[in-house]
């Protein structure tokens, strides 16, 4: 039954045509509907009791098992009930509100910034849409009731299967001893996700009631380069209200000067002497603001305003290196997760700010949104702070390269690009983490997706994060630069510290030699349980994590010096929760920080390295052979 429903969802998959971050200004407003929503959980892996019984038509708060759930938050860690934590299947959320009289002046939309994984959205008793995949925003227009309560009901399903991205594996187990004792209860299954992070589910980011003018600015695409070339495209929902135009002003946020004024829904111009956006350590992350006044040509009245911050900068890729503004950019980075105690992957400005402060404290200039796009607020903060970002689509551990999966993957890529393309901090798109990219089906599958990504955004390089080997990989040659995950001294040669440096040098050098593209060591590291002290070091001790890092860094310095490495990202910024397994002691402990963001010994080693690492080294001494 659930499979059938999923197929229907796939067919219905939401065609997203551009989505702007909510803004409150002279012409547009919003209510943030965050708070305590009514919450009801269906039985584990149920066939869809709620759908069958039309729960969207009733008041969920009347149910005996109803409770409340904070939004935004994952629901998993909020109660003391193991069945809530480990739930598989449908949960229901409901929220009721009265509309204000002034809202009649607007068109109204419900905007969901992230609901993980499938969401069916009902409004005042009707299904208004659905979304698949989590981590990316979607919105639907709604007509408000003005004389009675409005009711939002959301059915959310977190189930992972072969047909989902990321994938998961269902294993149904039966065992009966000759005595007749049955080990597993009827219908028992294990669900093993093909990824190493807890499958936090629910309404993970804010929900908005958007109030937009009758004709409004719907989509905005900005491209701004280091040489001052600037283009924008505005897509408008005209609501059949005739001839619309736009007045445009670009202001430097540094000098507060207007650097451009123009007219039109699109333009390609050159703006002289712009202050560039630079990553940290390479100059200031200067931003500009594009202000759009949407004008009705008949009445000459302003009918909508939208303001977007952006930056002038150029990203290029050579055989050896990634250039930002024609300077070699060496990524001193982090793999991360949106993860914290209690709210799981739910958006929290405190955690986000602390995380970015810790990236800066350690001297980092870069991160990857492993393994899904992070919140929109974080992308704006990365712009402001000058942190360069590889934004990754939610496609981790891909094993099944079918057409329906590819269609869903393509949908997620386009939603990600529509959401994030105006951020100067985003310098590349990652299309997967550790796919089975050593098969020819993977090659065909990714070839289409790489072409699609380039066609949606020709201004940024495309990469993928690989854990295959240079000798067998079948996609690396199609990428603009290559990210490689490897854990020498941890998953390979555990305990043999003396092998780490040569292993990295040997392998990365071959990737470079074979593909002649920039290589980023996108994950490396070791688990350390905070406070576990062992000298000489033993795996899981803080000293062991330090020992692994120091030896990896020795290799990276050598590789950088001969032009074979374009960046490094330690795994991970902080400890994070995972599914249960014998190799995970209450989550993954490869963090430089504990889960509550306190530094481990390794954090100081990395801080010293990142603070003292010269910015531009690549290609200095190409004769330096391993
Ligand atoms: C990886 C994965 C990451 C894991 C990490 C680990 O290669 O990309 O999701 O958490 O290894 O610690 O095993």
TrEMBL record:
<keyword id="KW-0326">Glycosidase</keyword>
<dbReference type="InterPro" id="IPR006101">
    <property type="entry name" value="Glyco_hydro_2"/>
</dbReference>
<dbReference type="InterPro" id="IPR017853">
    <property type="entry name" value="GH"/>
</dbReference>
<feature type="signal peptide">
    <location>
        <begin position="1"/>
        <end position="18"/>
    </location>
</feature>
<dbReference type="Pfam" id="PF00703">
    <property type="entry name" value="Glyco_hydro_2"/>
</dbReference>
<dbReference type="GO" id="GO:0004566">
    <property type="term" value="F:beta-glucuronidase activity"/>
</dbReference>
<dbReference type="GO" id="GO:0005615">
    <property type="term" value="C:extracellular space"/>
</dbReference>
<dbReference type="InterPro" id="IPR006104">
    <property type="entry name" value="Glyco_hydro_2_N"/>
</dbReference>
<feature type="domain" description="Glycoside hydrolase family 2 catalytic">
    <location>
        <begin position="315"/>
        <end position="614"/>
    </location>
</feature>
<feature type="domain" description="Glycoside hydrolase family 2 immunoglobulin-like beta-sandwich">
    <location>
        <begin position="245"/>
        <end position="313"/>
    </location>
</feature>
<keyword id="KW-0732">Signal</keyword>
<dbReference type="GO" id="GO:0030246">
    <property type="term" value="F:carbohydrate binding"/>
</dbReference>
<dbReference type="Pfam" id="PF02837">
    <property type="entry name" value="Glyco_hydro_2_N"/>
</dbReference>
<dbReference type="InterPro" id="IPR006103">
    <property type="entry name" value="Glyco_hydro_2_cat"/>
</dbReference>
<dbReference type="InterPro" id="IPR006102">
    <property type="entry name" value="Ig-like_GH2"/>
</dbReference>
<dbReference type="Pfam" id="PF02836">
    <property type="entry name" value="Glyco_hydro_2_C"/>
</dbReference>
<comment type="similarity">
    <text>Belongs to the glycosyl hydrolase 2 family.</text>
</comment>
<dbReference type="GO" id="GO:0019391">
    <property type="term" value="P:glucuronoside catabolic process"/>
</dbReference>
<feature type="domain" description="Glycosyl hydrolases family 2 sugar binding">
    <location>
        <begin position="32"/>
        <end position="213"/>
    </location>
</feature>
<dbReference type="InterPro" id="IPR036156">
    <property type="entry name" value="Beta-gal/glucu_dom_sf"/>
</dbReference>
<keyword id="KW-0378">Hydrolase</keyword>
<dbReference type="InterPro" id="IPR008979">
    <property type="entry name" value="Galactose-bd-like_sf"/>
</dbReference>
<protein>
    <recommendedName>
        <fullName>Beta-glucuronidase</fullName>
        <ecNumber>3.2.1.31</ecNumber>
    </recommendedName>
</protein>
<comment type="function">
    <text>Plays an important role in the degradation of dermatan and keratan sulfates.</text>
</comment>
<dbReference type="InterPro" id="IPR013783">
    <property type="entry name" value="Ig-like_fold"/>
</dbReference>
<dbReference type="GO" id="GO:0005975">
    <property type="term" value="P:carbohydrate metabolic process"/>
</dbReference>
